[in-house]
Amino acid sequence: MLRRLLECRLVSVYSSGSINLLHYGLGYGFYCCVVWSLLLRLPGEISLAQAIAHSAVHALLAWGQFKAAQTLAALRKDGKGAVIHRKHLLPQGHLFRYLSSPHYNLEMLIYLNLFCLVSGSGGGGGGLLFHLLLFVLVNQSASALLSHAWYRRQFGSSFPADRRALIPFVL
Fold it and tell me: So where are the chain's domains?
């Protein structure tokens, strides 16, 4: 969560829009449930190899999300990092070559990795985390599909025909 806070404060450039209060409340409740599901897991049941493997996967996915946030922010900044406008532009490069909103896809993979770690440890909390994973999959898939449709409408013929919403080269 510290990475997200720093990303929000130091990297992202937001439009003049605001978040829906219900969506904000769902997000807040969701993170509370994640904490509880992790607290329910019995400690000491994860091997060092599991911890290293899942940490490496998490770091790679988090790096991908950070790169996506940087790419989006760079669309609204000049070469020196100063915000020059708040228009929506078509992101290019990195995972945006394949997906309209890779940060949504990476979020799903982060929670899938977390679920695999917790459920593979034999501890409690895997059931609650499974439901949280389902929530993330539904929420982020819907967001990715809606964003993809928006990009297609907004950018028309300049939108890359081979860019997908959820699965590169497929959907």
Answer: 46-171
